[in-house]
From TrEMBL:
Matches recorded under InterPro entries: EF_Hand_1_Ca_BS, Put_HupE_UreJ
The protein's name: Membrane protein
Coiled coil start-end: none
Lineage start: Bacteria, Pseudomonadati, Pseudomonadota, Betaproteobacteria, Burkholderiales
Source superkingdom: Bacteria
Keywords of the record: Membrane, Signal, Transmembrane, Transmembrane helix
Keyword Oxidoreductase in annotation: no
Length: 373
């Protein structure tokens, strides 16, 4: 009975992790002299929460319901975006709105235009971004700005709502840092990636085949090192190949395979599916997870002028975020390895992870939503 209760509690905690994934929006600005053409992709689920799009309250958004709120969407969004050149404010005007799909759902695409004052192309742009600042402290705005063939990026959040970007002398170091920060952020909100890795790491402090006994700390560290290194090497390979458009796989296949990898990694803690081959499994499925990371970069975009540096920055960020998770996991697992609680996490927790991942798999294969926000 206790185990059933633990499973229910863990499922209740894990399920909203997918439904309430921290939100991003994607803002692209193209500077042509004094004119700016913009595109802003904002998640429909976030807009529905902020201003209400579901007219009949049935939990399903239709094109007619969204179209009826186009003016409200444009007003709400553009009031929370300020663009100014070094010569003054650039007023924003909505042009059209469309619908597009990202890996985490449907997005409203708001296209707009701005005319900046002055008689020449601006030397710098100052952007203020406060979308959802009062509603979601974890929301991020991912900016891509193109001017004279040079692309730069920046990340906005409630703590960093304003950036000034030079259009004449791009700050390569700041751009590299932005991609590092973005990589860290996306591993931390990638619940399926985290659960896959943690599922493989949970047995690290226990002797193979003897769950009641514990490994030494040095042996546990080496076990963790092998799993993490294999996962890192694999996803770095496919992240690079996919980001450079050398290899491409359908998004639904990738996301479905990632969910399946979480199921197998969790079930391995209940049944010996891999028998000492967790590093091999980490590498094999890490190749698939790399395609998932690459989808984020496709949304953000890679500047051609500093493509390799930006790709490296994002990959470094992913690794730093991953190492932070491992650094928090290993000491806690070592301290708790002899307790009843850790045994429950290993068994009951793994079962709960597998059940939630099964829901994700069905959702992704069938393109439906079983867990609502």
């Amino acid at each position: 009975m206790k185990r059933c209760l633990v499973i229910l509690l863990l499922c209740a905690w894990l399920a909203p992790a997918q439904a309430h994934k921290p939100s991003d929006s994607y803002l692209s600005l193209a500077v042509h002299g004094q004119q700016i053409d913009g595109q802003w992709d904002i998640a429909l689920r976030d807009l529905d929460f902020a201003i209400g799009l579901d007219g009949n309250g049935d939990g399903e958004l239709t094109w007619n319901e969204i179209r009826a709120r186009h003016d409200a969407i444009a007003t709400y969004a553009l009031q929370r975006l300020q663009v100014a050149s070094d010569r003054g404010v650039c007023p924003l005007k909505a042009v059209e709105q469309l619908i597009d799909s990202h890996t985490d759902g449907a997005y409203n695409v708001l296209r707009f235009r701005a005319d900046c004052p002055g008689g020449a192309a601006p030397a710098s742009m100052t952007i203020g971004y406060t979308l959802f600042a009062a509603l979601d402290p974890q929301h991020k705005g991912l900016l891509k700005i193109n001017s004279s063939g040079t692309t730069q990026t920046a990340i906005f959040d409630p703590d960093s709502p304003r950036r000034t970007i030079s259009l004449t002398t791009p700050d390569r170091l700041a751009q590299f840092g932005a991609y590092v920060k973005n990589g860290v952020w996306h591993i931390w909100i990638g619940y399926d990636h985290i659960l896959f890795l943690l599922s493989l790491l949970l047995p690290a402090v226990l002797l193979p085949g003897l769950r009641e006994q514990q490994q030494g700390l040095k042996a546990a560290f080496h076990d963790v090192l092998k799993v993490v290194t294999a996962f890192t090497l694999a996803h770095s390979i496919t992240l690079t190949l996919a980001s450079l458009s050398l290899v491409s796989l359908p998004s639904r296949w990738v996301e479905s395979a990632i969910a399946a990898s979480v199921i197998l990694a969790a079930l391995n803690n209940l049944l010996p599916l891999f028998r000492g081959k967790r590093p091999v499994v980490a590498f094999a499925f890490g190749l698939i997870h790399g395609f998932g990371f690459a989808s984020v970069l496709r949304d953000l975009g890679l500047p051609q002028g500093s493509l390799l540096a930006s790709l490296l920055g994002f990959n470094v960020g992913v690794e730093l975020g991953q190492l932070a998770i491992v650094a928090a996991f290993l000491p806690a697992a070592w301290l708790l390895r002899k307790t009843w609680f850790y045994r429950q996490v290993l068994t009951v927790g793994s079962l709960a992870i597998a059940l939630v991942a099964c829901v994700w798999l069905v959702e992704r294969v069938a393109d439906i939503k079983l867990i609502s926000a």
